[in-house]
Protein backbone atom coordinates (compact mmCIF):
# COMPACT_ATOMS: atom_id res chain seq x y z
CA UNK A 1 0.00 0.00 0.00
CA UNK A 2 1.45 3.36 -1.03
CA UNK A 3 1.31 6.62 0.85
CA UNK A 4 -1.66 8.90 0.04
CA UNK A 5 -0.84 11.64 -2.45
CA UNK A 6 0.81 14.69 -0.79
CA UNK A 7 1.94 12.67 2.24
CA UNK A 8 5.67 11.82 2.52
CA UNK A 9 6.79 8.74 0.60
CA UNK A 10 10.51 9.38 1.23
CA UNK A 11 11.76 10.74 4.56
CA UNK A 12 15.52 11.18 4.97
CA UNK A 13 17.02 12.63 8.15
CA UNK A 14 20.59 13.37 9.29
CA UNK A 15 22.13 11.17 6.58
CA UNK A 16 25.91 10.71 6.77
CA UNK A 17 28.19 8.72 4.49
CA UNK A 18 31.98 8.76 4.13
CA UNK A 19 34.49 6.56 2.34
CA UNK A 20 38.08 5.86 3.38
CA UNK A 21 40.79 7.35 1.17
CA UNK A 22 43.59 5.08 -0.12
CA UNK A 23 46.38 6.62 1.96
CA UNK A 24 44.70 8.20 4.98
CA UNK A 25 41.61 10.06 6.12
CA UNK A 26 38.19 9.84 4.52
CA UNK A 27 36.00 11.45 1.89
CA UNK A 28 32.71 12.74 3.31
CA UNK A 29 29.96 12.77 0.67
CA UNK A 30 26.87 13.17 2.86
CA UNK A 31 27.08 15.22 6.03
CA UNK A 32 23.67 15.39 7.68
CA UNK A 33 21.43 15.51 4.60
CA UNK A 34 17.69 15.96 5.25
CA UNK A 35 14.82 15.95 2.76
CA UNK A 36 11.43 14.43 2.05
CA UNK A 37 9.45 13.67 -1.09
CA UNK A 38 5.66 13.55 -1.24
CA UNK A 39 3.88 10.69 -2.94
CA UNK A 40 3.36 11.49 -6.62
CA UNK A 41 6.12 14.14 -6.74
CA UNK A 42 9.10 14.16 -9.08
CA UNK A 43 12.39 15.35 -7.57
CA UNK A 44 15.68 16.13 -9.34
CA UNK A 45 18.90 16.04 -7.34
CA UNK A 46 21.67 17.99 -9.06
CA UNK A 47 25.26 18.72 -8.13
CA UNK A 48 28.83 18.59 -9.37
CA UNK A 49 30.56 15.32 -10.22
CA UNK A 50 31.73 13.68 -7.01
CA UNK A 51 29.18 15.53 -4.87
CA UNK A 52 27.53 12.27 -3.75
CA UNK A 53 24.50 11.99 -6.04
CA UNK A 54 25.08 8.36 -6.98
CA UNK A 55 25.84 7.55 -3.33
CA UNK A 56 22.45 9.01 -2.40
CA UNK A 57 20.70 6.82 -4.98
CA UNK A 58 22.55 3.74 -3.70
CA UNK A 59 21.46 4.49 -0.12
CA UNK A 60 17.83 5.06 -1.13
CA UNK A 61 17.89 1.81 -3.10
CA UNK A 62 19.30 -0.13 -0.15
CA UNK A 63 22.43 -0.99 -2.17
CA UNK A 64 24.61 0.69 0.45
CA UNK A 65 24.15 1.64 4.11
CA UNK A 66 24.66 5.07 5.69
CA UNK A 67 27.14 5.63 8.48
CA UNK A 68 24.41 7.47 10.39
CA UNK A 69 20.89 8.73 9.83
CA UNK A 70 17.54 7.33 8.79
CA UNK A 71 15.83 6.53 5.48
CA UNK A 72 12.11 5.78 5.45
CA UNK A 73 10.27 4.83 2.27
CA UNK A 74 6.50 4.46 2.59
CA UNK A 75 7.01 4.16 6.34
CA UNK A 76 9.56 1.33 6.12
CA UNK A 77 12.89 2.08 7.82
CA UNK A 78 15.59 0.90 5.42
CA UNK A 79 18.33 1.62 7.95
CA UNK A 80 16.85 -0.96 10.33
CA UNK A 81 16.75 -3.77 7.72
CA UNK A 82 19.34 -6.51 7.24
CA UNK A 83 20.64 -7.40 3.77
CA UNK A 84 17.89 -9.94 3.15
CA UNK A 85 15.22 -7.46 4.14
CA UNK A 86 16.72 -4.76 1.92
CA UNK A 87 16.84 -7.17 -1.02
CA UNK A 88 13.18 -8.10 -0.56
CA UNK A 89 12.07 -4.49 -0.16
CA UNK A 90 14.06 -3.31 -3.18
CA UNK A 91 12.78 -6.11 -5.40
CA UNK A 92 9.13 -5.63 -4.43
CA UNK A 93 8.81 -1.85 -4.14
CA UNK A 94 11.54 0.02 -6.02
CA UNK A 95 12.25 0.53 -9.69
CA UNK A 96 15.83 1.54 -10.53
CA UNK A 97 17.16 2.93 -13.82
CA UNK A 98 20.93 3.22 -14.20
CA UNK A 99 23.08 5.17 -16.63
CA UNK A 100 24.72 1.92 -17.80
CA UNK A 101 21.38 0.07 -18.43
CA UNK A 102 22.55 -3.17 -16.66
CA UNK A 103 20.60 -5.49 -18.95
CA UNK A 104 21.50 -9.17 -19.03
CA UNK A 105 23.15 -9.65 -22.43
CA UNK A 106 21.89 -13.21 -23.02
CA UNK A 107 18.22 -12.27 -22.43
CA UNK A 108 15.90 -10.66 -24.96
CA UNK A 109 14.16 -7.35 -24.29
CA UNK A 110 11.02 -9.22 -23.20
CA UNK A 111 12.99 -11.59 -20.95
CA UNK A 112 14.88 -8.71 -19.29
CA UNK A 113 11.56 -6.99 -18.52
CA UNK A 114 10.04 -10.22 -17.18
CA UNK A 115 13.01 -11.00 -14.91
CA UNK A 116 12.04 -8.97 -11.78
CA UNK A 117 8.63 -10.63 -11.64
CA UNK A 118 10.16 -14.09 -12.02
CA UNK A 119 12.66 -13.38 -9.22
CA UNK A 120 9.78 -12.38 -6.96
CA UNK A 121 7.79 -15.46 -7.92
CA UNK A 122 4.91 -13.28 -9.07
CA UNK A 123 2.51 -14.38 -11.80
CA UNK A 124 3.69 -12.87 -15.07
CA UNK A 125 0.82 -12.43 -17.48
CA UNK A 126 1.77 -12.08 -21.14
CA UNK A 127 -0.57 -9.10 -21.40
CA UNK A 128 1.40 -7.27 -18.70
CA UNK A 129 4.67 -7.60 -20.60
CA UNK A 130 3.01 -6.64 -23.87
CA UNK A 131 1.62 -3.49 -22.22
CA UNK A 132 5.07 -2.57 -20.88
CA UNK A 133 6.67 -3.12 -24.29
CA UNK A 134 3.98 -1.00 -25.91
CA UNK A 135 4.40 1.76 -23.30
CA UNK A 136 8.09 2.10 -24.12
CA UNK A 137 7.61 1.68 -27.88
CA UNK A 138 9.43 -1.65 -28.23
CA UNK A 139 6.73 -4.10 -29.28
CA UNK A 140 8.58 -4.85 -32.51
CA UNK A 141 11.90 -5.38 -30.69
CA UNK A 142 10.73 -7.78 -28.00
CA UNK A 143 12.91 -10.72 -29.11
CA UNK A 144 16.10 -8.68 -29.67
CA UNK A 145 19.13 -9.02 -27.41
CA UNK A 146 20.69 -5.88 -25.87
CA UNK A 147 23.58 -6.03 -28.39
CA UNK A 148 20.99 -5.73 -31.18
CA UNK A 149 19.41 -2.60 -29.67
CA UNK A 150 20.49 1.04 -29.70
CA UNK A 151 21.42 2.85 -26.49
CA UNK A 152 18.02 4.52 -26.37
CA UNK A 153 16.25 1.20 -26.90
CA UNK A 154 18.31 -0.41 -24.12
CA UNK A 155 17.30 2.40 -21.77
CA UNK A 156 13.65 1.89 -22.74
CA UNK A 157 13.99 -1.79 -21.83
CA UNK A 158 15.58 -0.79 -18.51
CA UNK A 159 12.68 1.58 -17.79
CA UNK A 160 10.09 -1.09 -18.62
CA UNK A 161 11.95 -3.56 -16.39
CA UNK A 162 11.93 -1.01 -13.54
CA UNK A 163 8.17 -0.56 -13.93
CA UNK A 164 7.36 -4.28 -14.10
CA UNK A 165 6.83 -4.58 -10.33
CA UNK A 166 4.61 -1.47 -10.25
CA UNK A 167 7.05 0.23 -7.88
CA UNK A 168 6.23 2.70 -5.11
CA UNK A 169 9.24 4.72 -6.19
CA UNK A 170 11.30 5.03 -9.37
CA UNK A 171 14.97 5.93 -8.82
CA UNK A 172 16.94 7.06 -11.86
CA UNK A 173 20.71 7.63 -11.80
CA UNK A 174 21.76 9.82 -14.77
CA UNK A 175 19.22 8.07 -17.07
CA UNK A 176 20.27 10.16 -20.09
CA UNK A 177 24.00 10.19 -19.34
CA UNK A 178 25.00 7.69 -22.05
CA UNK A 179 22.64 8.98 -24.72
CA UNK A 180 22.89 11.60 -27.44
CA UNK A 181 20.85 14.79 -27.01
CA UNK A 182 17.90 13.77 -29.20
CA UNK A 183 17.62 10.29 -27.67
CA UNK A 184 18.01 11.79 -24.19
CA UNK A 185 15.01 14.03 -24.84
CA UNK A 186 12.96 11.03 -25.93
CA UNK A 187 13.86 9.21 -22.69
CA UNK A 188 12.99 12.30 -20.60
CA UNK A 189 9.59 12.54 -22.33
CA UNK A 190 9.01 8.84 -21.76
CA UNK A 191 9.92 8.99 -18.05
CA UNK A 192 7.53 11.84 -17.33
CA UNK A 193 4.75 10.37 -19.44
CA UNK A 194 5.00 7.10 -17.52
CA UNK A 195 5.32 8.83 -14.14
CA UNK A 196 2.10 10.72 -14.82
CA UNK A 197 0.33 7.70 -16.28
CA UNK A 198 1.24 5.49 -13.31
CA UNK A 199 0.93 8.34 -10.73
CA UNK A 200 4.41 7.36 -9.65
CA UNK A 201 6.89 9.07 -7.34
CA UNK A 202 10.23 9.60 -9.09
CA UNK A 203 13.65 10.77 -7.91
CA UNK A 204 16.37 11.39 -10.48
CA UNK A 205 19.97 12.45 -10.07
CA UNK A 206 21.16 14.24 -13.16
CA UNK A 207 23.46 16.74 -14.84
CA UNK A 208 20.79 17.25 -17.51
CA UNK A 209 19.23 20.68 -16.94
CA UNK A 210 16.26 19.91 -19.19
CA UNK A 211 15.48 16.76 -17.20
CA UNK A 212 15.87 18.58 -13.86
CA UNK A 213 13.56 21.40 -14.92
CA UNK A 214 10.81 18.94 -15.82
CA UNK A 215 10.63 17.75 -12.20
CA UNK A 216 8.21 19.32 -9.75
CA UNK A 217 11.13 20.04 -7.36
CA UNK A 218 14.89 20.43 -7.55
CA UNK A 219 17.49 20.10 -4.80
CA UNK A 220 21.22 20.66 -5.14
CA UNK A 221 23.68 18.41 -3.33
CA UNK A 222 26.72 20.38 -2.16
CA UNK A 223 29.10 19.91 0.78
CA UNK A 224 27.12 16.87 1.89
CA UNK A 225 23.81 18.72 2.22
CA UNK A 226 20.72 19.06 0.05
CA UNK A 227 19.36 22.55 -0.48
Mean pLDDT: 89
Task: State Rg.
Answer: 17 Å
Report the CATH C-level class. Alpha Beta
Count all strands and give the number. 10
CATH homologous superfamily identity? P-loop containing nucleotide triphosphate hydrolases
Intertermini distance: 30 Å
Which structural class matches the secondary elements? Answer: alpha/beta
How would you write the strand order of the largest sheet? 6-7-8-3-9-10
Order of helices and strands: EEEHEEHEHHHEHEHEE
Strand content: 25-35%
Q: How many helices in DSSP terms?
A: 7
Residue stretches low in confidence (pLDDT < 50, at least 5 long) are none
Which fold does the CATH topology refer to? Rossmann fold
What form results from the Cα inertia axes? Answer: globular
Main sheet characteristics = 6 strands, mixed
Q: Number of domains in the coordinates?
A: 1
**What is the share of helical residues?**
25-40%
CATH architecture: 3-Layer(aba) Sandwich
Describe the 3D structure:
With 227 residues, the protein is α/β, with parallel strands linked by helices. The protein has one domain: Rossmann fold. It is 34% helix and 27% strand. It is built from 7 helices and 10 strands. It has a 6-stranded mixed beta sheet with strand order 6-7-8-3-9-10. A 4-stranded antiparallel beta sheet has the order 2-1-4-5, covered by helices on one side.
Amino acid sequence: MTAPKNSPLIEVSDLHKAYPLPESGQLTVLNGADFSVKAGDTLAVTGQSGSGKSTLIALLAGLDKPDRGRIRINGADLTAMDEAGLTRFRAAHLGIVFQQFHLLPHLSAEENIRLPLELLGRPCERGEIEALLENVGLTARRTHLPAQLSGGECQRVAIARALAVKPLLLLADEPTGNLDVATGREIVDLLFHLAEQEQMTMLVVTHNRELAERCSRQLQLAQGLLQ
